[in-house]
Amino acid sequence: MENLWLTASIWVALSLAGALLAGWTGISISLVEIIVGVLAGNFLGLHTETWVNYLAGAGSILLTFLAGAEVDPVVLKTKFKESLSIGLLSFLLPFIGAFLYAYYSLGWDLRAAQIAGIALSTTSVAVVYAVMVETGLNESELGRIILAACFITDLGTVVALGILFANFNAWMLLFLAVTAAVLSITPRFTPWFVQRYGNRVSQLEVKYLFFLLFLLGGLASLAGSEAVLPAYLLGLAMAGFFLEEKNLTLRMRTIAFSFLTPFYFLKAGLYVSLPAVWASAGIIMVALVVKMVSKFIGVWPVTRLFRFSSREGMYTTLLMSTGLTFGTISSLFGLTHGFINQEQYTILVTTVILSAVVPTLIAQTFFRPELVQAAVSKKQSLAMIPQERKG
């Protein structure tokens, strides 16, 4: 009989190793955990367990919820035309391009090609947000537009996943009805609940949020959909509340990134076969080109239409070409539900990982807006001024 606690210690040790590598290299922790999972699956013979699947699933739900909660509703409203145009085309054209490539060029069946279209149409909110904060662009108008556009793109991918792979039956009607009710009630009910029962040792507000996420996720599963869909919508519905409740946001992030999401990203990497990556290297590179070119065709002209400078337009296009979280979620959904096989999963996840790295490096190296560099320098200079002189 396998020793549960020793097995758990191995998974946590891998998570710890990933965190240390991320700190030393400066690479996104999610990306490093996937790579560690790849190595563990190919060289250590690690495999999933029932409890690992549960924790990984909970991690993906919570991560998706937090991504939705990061969207600033005010920015989404004030820059709606720019955000909607960039975000919608950033999803639609790569979805079509990747679907056609997988269906006609690679000969994948309809369901597998649809998974490919969804997985390669995503934009990584996690990667983009980290870049925004690092460069100071999150405080500029350009940065706010990019972040809002990321939400539109990923909302498109989540909705597509729900629509294309849902079973329209009585369970679906129940799921839609309950989700609509929860989304309409929670923005008003949650502030009262947290004010009345929050900030206690028992963490009632955290348990309340997990109850909503698991309830909607369970109904989504019964309807044949994916639990991340209502989680993302619930996060958006409560985004205004979370922007004011920084302490609660921090606690939820701590739960997610310290314990739950490492299992998800390690598991995602576990299914990548290195021999399959080597055998499919040409397909993977073409898939990456398809994603980046289709993103360029969709996003670049729109940035020029809204009078972005050439540098800002290219920078925006490259950041919208990134992918990680929703790409791996979509791919893993396809694998676990039998829509794609392990070789196809490996192709998609490897392409997604490369899309998190390549466009970001190009954008930061060659197209980083000068105004951001100036703003960062100014902030650094102000930080060096003694506090009494600032006053």
Automatic annotation (TrEMBL):
The chain crosses the membrane at residues 12-39, 51-71, 83-106, 112-133, 145-165, 171-194, 228-243, 255-272, 278-302, 314-333, 345-367. It comes from Thermanaeromonas toyohensis ToBE. Residues 14-364 form the Cation/H+ exchanger transmembrane domain. The keyword Transmembrane applies. GO terms for biological process: proton transmembrane transport; sodium ion transport. This is Transporter, CPA2 family. It is found in: Membrane. The keyword Membrane applies. PANTHER family: NAPA-TYPE SODIUM/HYDROGEN ANTIPORTER, SODIUM ION_PROTON EXCHANGER (EUROFUNG).
